[in-house]
Structure formats: structure tokens, C-alpha cells
Amino acid sequence: MSRRVPAKGLFWSVLLAGALLGCVQAETPEMPEIAEGRMLFLDNCAVCHGSFGAGDGAMAPALDPAPAKLTTIAARNGGAFPKAHVLSVIDGYTRMQRAGPDMPEFGLLLQGDTVPVDTGDGIMTPTPRPLAALLTYLESIQQ
Fold first, then answer.
1. Alpha carbon of 57 to those of 61, 68, 78, 119, 124: distances in Å?
2. Minimal CA–CA distance to 137: which of 88, 91, 83, 92?
3. Total-model pTM
4. With 74 labelled, which of 14, 15, 52, 108 sits at a CA distance of 20 to 30 A?
5. Topology (CATH level 3) of domain 30-140
6. With contact defined as beta carbons under 8 Å apart, do 115 and 129 qualify?
7. How far apart are CA 141 and CA 42, in angstroms?
8. Contact 59/111 with Cβ under 8 angstroms?
9. In contact, 76 and 114? CB cutoff 8 Å
10. Around Cβ 77, how many Cβ atoms within 10 Å?
């Protein structure tokens, strides 16, 4: 025996579902602002890479190899900023096989809420907010 939903009940069900969907869409996290990434950069990266990413931080003279000049990442890649590669360097994925005192891994940057990031393939990838903030900042300082 089938049970029919009255038209009035169907109307309220559809209205409630639409409202819930609207709430979910409204809660979608946004990419961090440049200022948020700059603060993380100054706290975690500037000691080696310098305050403006020029590779001239206080620790730079003692490091071999020298810290990368982060303002020319795009220039070294034909003008395109390689988001996926930059994220993998920061989070340590591309450094797993190397030996030696390379850039440290920053575990705290891999924790917390995530934001959707398009790394260039058109797919929004959930990325820890601090990592996305650093990515936003690094992209902003390209020369």
C-alpha cells in the first residue's frame, strides 16, 4: 500500500531541503587572504627565505643548498605558478626521498580546517587552510 504525501507536505519538504542546501553552500570556506599567508610566512619561512622571499633570511648563509628565491617560482616555470608542486614542497611530499638538511616539514601547516584549492587541474582539492594561505601569499609575491 503506497502512502501519498499531501501537496502541502511536499511543498514544505522541498522548501526545507532548499534551505538546508543553501546553508551548506553558504558555509563553503573561502581561500585565505594574502595577509593570512604573509603572517604564516613570516612565522615559519622568513628565517631562511627572507622577509620578502628573496632567499636572504638570517639562516641563509649557513644553509647548503641555499634557500630558494621564492619570488621567481613562476618565472622559473615559464610564467605559470605551479600550485600543486609548491604545495608538495611545503608539505614535504616531494622531499621525502632526499637526504640531507632540506627544508623542514611544518606539521602544524597540515592541520585544521580545509579550504577547496584548484591546483591547476580544475578539481577542487581540500587543503589545510594554513597551507592554502601560504600558497596564496607565495603566488602574490611572484615577479
1. 8, 10, 26, 28, 33
2. 83
3. 0.76
4. 108
5. Cytochrome Bc1 Complex; Chain D, domain 2 (1.10.760)
6. yes
7. 13
8. no
9. no
10. 13
- Count of residues making up the chain: 143
Residue corresponding to grid cell 626521498 = 97
Residue 19 class from Cβ within 10 Å (0-12 exposed, 13-18 middle, 19+ buried)?
exposed
- Confidence category of residue 1, pLDDT binned at 50, 70, 90: low
5 CB neighbour count, 10 Å cutoff: 10
DSSP state of 116: E
For residue 93, the Cα-to-chain-centroid distance in whole angstroms is 14
59-108 pLDDT per residue, tens: 999 998 899 999 999 999 999 999 999 998 888 766 555 545 567 777 77
Q: Is 130 exposed, middle or buried (0-12, 13-18, 19+ CB in 10 A)?
A: buried
Torsion of CA 120, 122, 126, 128, to 10 degrees: 20
Burial class (CB within 10 angstroms; exposed 0-12, middle 13-18, buried 19+) of 1: exposed
